[in-house]
Amino acid sequence: MNRWLQWQTTLLLIAHFSSGSAAAIDSPAVLLPIHSLLGNHTATAPINNAAYAPPASAAVGAPFASRIRINQGTLSLTPAILQSVIEGRDARLFPAITLTLATEGDVLIPAEAGLMVRETGSPHVFSYWRVIPQYGRVWHEARDGDWSRAAFPLMLVNDTENHAHQGLATFVYRKHEISDIRVQFVQQTGPYLLTPQFVAAGQLAAMAAPLSAADSTAVRHAGRQELASRLPAQPWQNLTASVPPRTLDGFGGPLRPEWQVATALVRDDTLYYQASATPFGPYPYPLEMRFGVRSMMKSVAAPLSLLHLAEVYGPWVLTLRIGDYVPNLDPKWQQIRFIDAANMASGFGGTGSFKTAPNDIYDGYLGGDYDAWYLAHSQTDKIAAIRATLHPYPWNPGTVVRYRDQDFYLLGAAVDAFLKSMRGSSADVWQMLQEEVFAPIGIVHAPAVHTREADDREGLVWFNAGYYPTLDDIAKIALLYQHHGAQGGKQLLHRQLTDDLLAARGARVKSGDASLQSAASAADTDRGDEQLYQLGFHYTPYVSRSTGIRHYLPTMSGSGENEAILFPNGLVSIRTAKASQVPTGMPIFDDTGPATIRAVERLSPF
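^ thats the sequence. predicted structure below, dont judge the formating
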């Protein structure tokens, strides 16, 4: 089937499985009457998400091709956040933005899909947020007369944080005349600075100007290409109906369901996704959600760039010294190799205890005034914060695993500088990944947090966090590893190093001190139930119930219990979640043990 047609079919399946029976939920024209969008109204709370997707009985909406300007407006947040203004920017404000929208059949295509759209204009107070819009729908209901409805997903994101609020927007239109835009944000991945977790709603003034025929054609063409590049996707019910009952019970666990945002399984290169529950009904566009996955970025930026550069230039790239490429660091960085930082074994950090037997990889993790570094805007300021607050440990690089975001940040700075030394000053490591790795595997956009340089320019991408992927993006990255770094017959990642990563060869024992081990024990492929770490991956030990073989499962992990596990049978489990800043006394996990791994093993023994 043509991928564009397949995506439209997927939209119909999403509508069917997430809306329930047509009789059970009113149509958008009833839930959100047209007069409430055309009049001078406010939105004090979210409503049922069904108001933001066409009912099964709806007709296709009229064609639409306009550039819309959305005014800054106040959001109603429930509950109120503890600190609404951070560095002078207000999280209660929706930003003033401009979006370019065009329709292809009943699909609404934003030209800015997958981009972090920043506020423009000169408001009295700037919003804390940027916005990432995604693909939506247009439809017509008889109750609306000669007006059509449009709705699209959008995420509130930030250029300092890496949590995302998954939201929805809707308006009615007639030719190039549009109503106010109603928005609501009903789900989120885990926060750090901005607490507590909240839902929000607002109604925003907007105006539209028609697109030229050429611009409209360009938007539709780009949208068709992007949607056609996605993996085949099917609702979870299609998978569970094809296997014995209860096979996939517990998938997503042991994390409790209330902390799960979205889950999916990749099997035979097909993405099986579960509808994402929210307090206001299922999110109607689960494949359009983008997530703040925090430290899952460590399993993306560092290994992909290093393994790709090893394929292009040779494995010696991993042995380069960070201090040779990043100036003004402590002299110990002259000894620390790229691979040492990628293994969280820099021997630098200097906070917490010096106890290494047994070792606690999170010992001193947020020490050394972590927030001073985290909130520093520019690369120069971030390096200055590292110099001022972190110091060498007494052990050698490569021997002890201590989890440090700063190590991965500096690794990104060093890899970027190395790339510039090879390709010229205009080279950029994130652009390289987008063009030479992401594009070949079908990832069109890769929104991520960068340093904020002079004149608010974007600088270096953060290697430690900051990526906003979709389920499709996570699946494609995981499959590239599963396919030994090759795509379409071309080797994008160094094959031997990729195979070593999948097999945990050379991985460090988290609780150990390699300087105290014999060479034989350090190279042992069976480390019992020890947790391992290597190249941004955690390795989860698991003994197969069917074969008795112990596996170390490569796991992409991020704060809030975001997780993607690569299985030796080629499958990939994905879970995005919000289990950070959890109120005291609220349980995060149940007592089912490794429920997701067991579900995958029941489905396909390994």
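The chain has two domains: 3-228, 301-466+505-537.
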